[in-house]
Amino acid sequence: MISFSGVEKRYSATDAALDGVSFDIFPGEFVFLVGHSGSGKSTAMKLLIKELEPTAGEIRVAGRDLAKIPRPRVPYYRRNLGVIFQDYKLLPNRTVYENVAYALQVTGGGRREIRDKVPDILRLTGLSTKLHNYPDQLSGGEQQRVAIARAFVNHPPLLIADEPTGNLDPETSIGIMQLLYRINQTGTTVLVATHDVAMVDKMRRRVIELADGRKIRDEQSAAYAAAESTREFAVRMRSAQG
Amino acid sequence: MKPVFFLREALRALKRNAIPSFAAMATVLVTVLVLGVFIPVVQATTGAANEVRGKVIADVYLKTDAKRADIERVDRLLKSEPMISKVEFISKDQAYKAERERNPKAYELLGSNPLPDTFRITPGNPDDIGKIRDALAPSAPGGGRTVVDPAIDEVRNREEDTNKILAVTNVVKITMALLAGLLGIASMLLIANTIRLSLYARRREVEVMKLVGATDWFIRWPFVLEGVIVGLFGGVVAILLLAVVKIAVVDPLAADFALIAAPETIDFPLLIGLLLVAAVSVSALGSGLSLRKFLRV
Ligand SMILES: Nc1ncnc2c1ncn2[C@@H]1O[C@H](COP(=O)(O)OP(=O)(O)OP(=O)(O)O)[C@@H](O)[C@H]1O
Ligand SMILES: [Mg+2]
């Protein structure tokens, strides 16, 4: 699904934010990208959505070489990805409902489609009571969930989340992870960047670790219960916490 | 393209960004108002200057013994000169009658008619008057002038007056053209800048739209429509004000003063049409183009 080979990104000539990183992620996987602050996680995400271009190496998504996508086609490529940004990136002048609807409108989705899909995804993310609030009237966790709803409303084959539990309390974090897990169970490939190591350990999923822009670890957790239901997952997460 | 969706988006943006939108509208309004007053003033001034320049003429005096054949030959010669636009013949009898009316006593004393037949010529371009004179009466090497036709006695223009008229009216016309150009440029920069400021405040929003998969034109159309609405509103209000001023102040005065109703002033409907088209297109193009920078995500 995603393949990095020898990817390097330098913001300046002296030091590299990513330095020769290679990995492959397969369809349906749930993968964590971890590392200390400044290790290059967000940079990898930005390369994936073609917000930035790598200075060397090749990135392929669903078999396509990102460097070969011409500028006018980039929006169409981005519609196949659901992206949850570290800073949410909600549209400040739109309500929760309109923010989520916008992701459908850009793809040419009509009113019927919006009326069908938006309430569903907002129910799934637990935002049904906040439809008409503007982003500045929401808590951090609620904004995060709007970002998830927007990223997933198109049911993209690949969901990438940068720090989706960044500033949230453990209980809310579990709620968000449970949501991502549920999305993953529908067949969507999920890549989550985070520095919340405790959370990652509890999830027991594949982990790719970066340090100073280099890959230092890539391993499958041993006790990996692939068929775990969302409820079982949540129970295990909470018990591990105590 | 979905016009209804884009129009709704434009209206929403105007509502949610009321203050910058209002500032842009006010800018368009003031600019159109100033242009609407200035354009007729420039035209009236230029028209007046041209009218004065139309008075630049030269007289071609024939010898007093010129025969009918001489007169016809000189007439053909003058009419074949491309720099001359109008040739008027004043016979010695006509000249005598006119002069005697102006100054009966002096002409009483003279008895006979001392005046020659004359051609009064008007140049196509007043600035050519000197060249025409040189063509008809080239300067002779020893000073003085010869003439191109033996029947011509002398070619005369009132040199002092002519030069003054040409110099002054040229300065007036150039100044007006310069002012009009500067004002036009200033208006466009002012409108473009106001729009750029209001877009700058929304560049994050544009970036986010790009990142969730919107194409450039999907983002741009609402901004262009917003520009059209701003230009239309500012333009229409300015034109209403201009119309009020015209009906209440200029029209009553025009009955009394010829200058205000100068013949070369643009018609009001054409003027407002031009201003409205300019306001809408500058504002729409301004929004569409200023956006380009922020779409590079
Ligand atoms: N736009 C930029 N210009 C210059 N340097 C940058 C830029 N963005 C990131 N960097 C640098 O690149 C390195 C990696 O940054 P990145 O944002 O990828 O880290 P991160 O792993 O996401 O960190 P965090 O966990 O704090 O979000 C850092 O050293 C950072 O200072
Ligand atoms: Mg980051």
From TrEMBL, chain B:
Keywords of this entry: Cell cycle, Cell division, Cell membrane, Membrane, Transmembrane, Transmembrane helix
Record localization: Cell membrane
Residue ranges annotated for the FtsX extracellular domain, each copy included: 59-136
Coiled coil feature spans: none
Segments passing through the bilayer: 21-42, 174-195, 228-250, 270-291
Ranges where the ABC3 transporter permease C-terminal domain occurs: 179-295
Gene3D superfamilies, per database record: 3.30.70.3040
Membrane topology: Multi-pass membrane protein
One matching Pfam family: FtsX
Family recorded in the similarity comment: Belongs to the ABC-4 integral membrane protein family. FtsX subfamily.
PANTHER family, per the entry: CELL DIVISION PROTEIN FTSX
Protein name: Cell division protein FtsX
Species annotation: Solirubrobacter deserti
